[in-house]
Specification:
Order of helices and strands: HEEEHHEEHEE
Number of strands: 7
Shape: globular
Length: 191
């Protein structure tokens, strides 16, 4: 997408975001996002902040989550993929639309099997995750960032540090691979 048509590169939009950040006394603003699951604001947030991209001021539109939430998502997706092969009639929640006809018996059976597969995947430590950041300049509003960070929770202080490190080009991601245990919420580092 050309920076000429991307409103996230527009000086007026950037000035408005800077003013909003100043009013909120933070280096970023929270964005209400209906696409994010509710109730986990300390594990996943949508924020915007001003920074530099290729020597040009821009609005960064970022989805940031904890590494543990990223791990849990990958774990569930892997288990769901495995079970769907055995139950091709099962329709995952994200694929259900207004034409979906509920099959509570099948849904219940599949959900129980998914939980069993998750336990096996966890026990065998088949899913391992590391901190990451993905930057997408071909976004419809500014530049998109998706990141998973090894922090216990996302709060103002941690997010301010993330923005400061990102904008200062001092963000250092931990390359270690981690697994988590959903039973006791303890994490183990893979050596």
């Amino acid at each position: 997408m050309s920076t000429n048509t991307n409103p996230g590169f527009d000086p007026a939009e950037i000035a408005a975001l800077k003013k909003q950040c100043e009013a909120e006394k933070r280096s970023f603003v929270y964005i209400l996002d209906e696409d994010l699951p509710s109730g986990n604001e300390r594990e996943m947030v949508h924020i915007q902040f001003v920074g530099q991209y290729e020597k040009q001021e821009v609005i960064y539109d970022a989805i940031v989550c904890t590494l543990q939430l990223h791990y849990s998502s990958l774990l569930y997706e892997a288990a769901e993929r495995e079970i769907i092969q055995q139950y091709p009639l099962y329709v995952p929640l994200e694929n259900r639309d207004e034409n979906y006809e509920p099959n509570e018996e099948l849904d219940e059976e599949v959900e129980m099997l998914i939980l069993e597969v998750i336990e096996d995947l966890e026990e065998n430590e088949e899913i391992k995750v590391a901190e990451y950041i993905e930057i997408d300049p071909e976004f419809e509003y500014g530049v998109s960032i998706e990141a998973a960070l090894y922090v216990p929770a996302l709060d103002d202080e941690m997010l301010s540090q993330f923005v400061q490190d990102f904008n200062g080009n001092t963000l250092s991601l931990d390359p270690s691979l981690y697994t988590f245990n959903s039973d006791d919420e303890d994490e183990d580092e893979d050596e």
